[in-house]
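Input structure tokens:
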């Protein structure tokens, strides 16, 4: 089951692109930039993208928040998720988009490419 939580996701290719662009752009000097997809997306959306790409062993069921929060007391793996459960976190990428005339890679492409990359790595 999946937690009811939403966060901005980042594609490593976008992060690399902005790192290089920041080295080449005088307007970036001394500034910090958020590099992420504009909108926060829930874990359920990620699972639905993966499932629509033919991966059938993906759960698209939400876990009850109270149960997940309770389980964080007994699981070190879940403890780090506690602050995300039931919440939405957003980051403002407008300054990054403006400074670098940049648009992030879509969530669908990021998730699909990541899933395929994991499958390929597991075959190796």
């Amino acid at each position: 089951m999946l937690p009811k939580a939403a966060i901005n996701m980042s594609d490593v290719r976008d992060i690399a692109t902005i790192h290089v662009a920041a080295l080449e752009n005088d307007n970036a000097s001394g500034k910090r930039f958020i590099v992420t997809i504009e909108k926060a997306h829930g874990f359920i959306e990620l699972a639905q993208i993966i499932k629509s790409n033919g991966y059938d062993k993906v759960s698209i069921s939400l876990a009850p928040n109270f149960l997940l929060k309770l389980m964080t007391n007994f699981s070190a793996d879940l403890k780090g998720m506690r602050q995300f459960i039931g919440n939405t976190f957003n980051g403002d990428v407008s300054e990054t988009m403006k400074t670098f005339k940049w648009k992030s890679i879509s969530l669908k492409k990021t998730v699909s490419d990541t899933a395929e990359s994991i499958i390929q790595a597991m075959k190796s």
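Residues 6-123 form one domain. The CA atoms of residues 13 and 91 lie 18 Å apart.
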